[in-house]
Specification:
409 residues, Cathepsin D, subunit A, domain 1, six-stranded mixed sheet, disordered N terminus, binds 2-acetamido-2-deoxy-beta-D-glucopyranose
Length: 409
């Protein structure tokens, strides 16, 4: 038992280290550790495709194009896109914390590329060369390659002449075990490496969607095989949240950055007027160091955010007030419990002066990213949605459990 706990903590620590390592550029990619895991994932993906064909909804009830997302253990949310003609398929993480699209190129020989789909230029009739060097540098390594141009499709929409990066080297990074092949950035254009126009902006300028708005519903307890959530293009689907959206202006159109009124743990004030970003590419909540220190002290947590605990019911909500409205996250969502050991899913990284609201937050609150009006809208997710397709979820719990078991090895 103790050994198993240690491994899980090591796994969590691995994610944290990665989050810390890449924080300088804020391209955060939560990944899994086991080198053997990718192979079993492929089995899961095969199962998922089967189910997805049955349950695929191309449009929301109110008519917006919709891309179905997969969810592994509430850590990685990703979807299926195609590049080229005929289509070459890739799983990408839709990341609001970066602004470039990249996938592995066929000339990539890094280990991370071997286990993932790669793009073959020669097999696409719509491919156009660009060749400009592309590189995203992380603390301990880099992803680099060159730019190419081709058709990119998802949610039933095809963007013509999208510039993207074909990665030829994934060095010193932990993409090897990532579920996804690449990343599709949905941050603002100013963040884009090489000044490439992001996919969503091209979607709008090519008239594929009328409203320059997209939204994320990250389903809690969704799964790899079964409906992990939705990325909706062109608007929001009110059936996925309760009440109305609370809007807040983006204070700097690079990341999706907004100002919070206050952040509390129960009634204890942690901060007022702190800035935060909504980032689908991060799984945790990251707090500035001073705020994190206060929170850790409240729980008597050690430097890694762990503490002894009995029942999560005895801990207060995390309360984030945005534009006068309180958004509450119950302890069971921001604390991970393993028997008598608890770990905060709120962490801190060095030289970070704003909060990063990852999936721990976004999984509780449906989020509308309004590009046109440069604002964000939040509303509690409709909890009834979690109950949809429960039977299927149970069937595939076993499949997931097998994957989990390998993961903890
Ligand atoms: C992506 O979607 C296509 C078309 O539905 C399918 O053939 C392919 O297997 C999917 N890829 C993955 C990895 O799910
Ligand atoms: C895409 O690129 C091709 C080849 O460069 C060009 O002929 C076509 O007009 C472009 N289409 C759009 C929508 O930009
Ligand atoms: C390559 O793409 C970049 C970014 O879109 C653009 O600035 C540059 O002009 C392109 N170069 C060529 C040779 O097409
Ligand atoms: C998700 O699963 C966890 C653990 O099984 C459970 O405690 C939690 O209530 C579930 N959440 C929802 C919304 O079903």
């Amino acid at each position: 038992m103790a050994g198993s706990q240690m491994k899980k903590l090591a796994f969590l620590a691995g994610i944290l280290v990665l989050v810390g390592v890449v924080s300088s550029t804020l391209h955060r990619i939560p990944v899994h550790r086991s080198p053997k895991f990718t192979r079993s994932h492929k089995n899961i993906v095969a199962e998922r495709d089967f189910i997805q064909q049955k349950y695929n909804r191309q449009y929301t009830a109110n008519g917006h194009p919709m891309e179905q997302l997969s969810n592994f253990d509430n850590y990685q949310y990703y979807g299926n896109i195609s590049i080229g003609t005929p289509a070459q398929y890739f799983l990408v993480q839709f990341d609001t914390g970066s602004s470039n699209l990249w996938v592995p190129g066929s000339s990539c020989t890094s280990t991370a590329c071997e286990d993932h789909q790669v793009f073959y230029e020669s097999q696409s009739s719509t491919y156009v060369a660009n060749g400009t060097a592309f590189s995203i540098t992380y603390g301990t390594g880099s992803v680099s390659g060159y730019l190419s141009v081709d058709y990119v499709s998802f949610a039933g929409l095809t963007v013509k002449n999208q510039t993207f990066a074909e990665v030829t080297t994934e060095q010193g990074t932990n993409f090897v075990d990532a579920y996804f092949d690449g990343i599709l950035g949905m941050g603002f254009p100013i963040l884009a490496v090489d000044g490439v126009t992001p996919t969503f902006q091209n979607m709008v300028s090519q008239g594929l969607i009328q409203n320059p708005v997209f939204s994320f519903f990250l389903r809690d307890n969704g799964s790899v095989v079964n409906y992990g959530g939705e990325l909706i293009l062109g608007g929001s689907d009110p059936s996925l949240y309760s009440g109305g959206l609370t809007y807040v202006d983006v204070i700097q159109a690079a990341y999706w950055k907004f100002q919070t009124d206050s952040i509390k743990i129960g009634s204890t004030l942690i901060s007022t007027y702190d800035a935060a970003i909504a980032d689908t590419g991060t799984s945790l909540i990251i707090a500035p160091i001073a705020e994190y220190t206060m929170i850790a002290a409240l729980f008597g947590a050690d430097s890694e955010g762990t503490f002894e605990c009995t029942s999560l019911n005895s801990y207060p909500d995390l309360v984030i007030t945005i534009n006068g409205v309180e958004f509450k996250i119950a302890a069971k969502y921001y604390i991970i419990q393993e028997n008598y050991l608890c770990s905060l899913a709120i962490q801190s990284i060095t030289s970070q002066d704003f909060w990063i609201m990852g999936d721990v937050f976004l999984g509780r609150f449906y989020t509308e990213f309004d590009v046109g009006n440069q604002r964000l809208g939040f509303a509690p997710v409709n909890s009834a949605i979690s109950l949809r397709q429960t039977a299927l979820w149970q069937v595939f719990t076993l499949v997931l459990a097998c994957g989990m078991w390998k993961l903890w090895q």
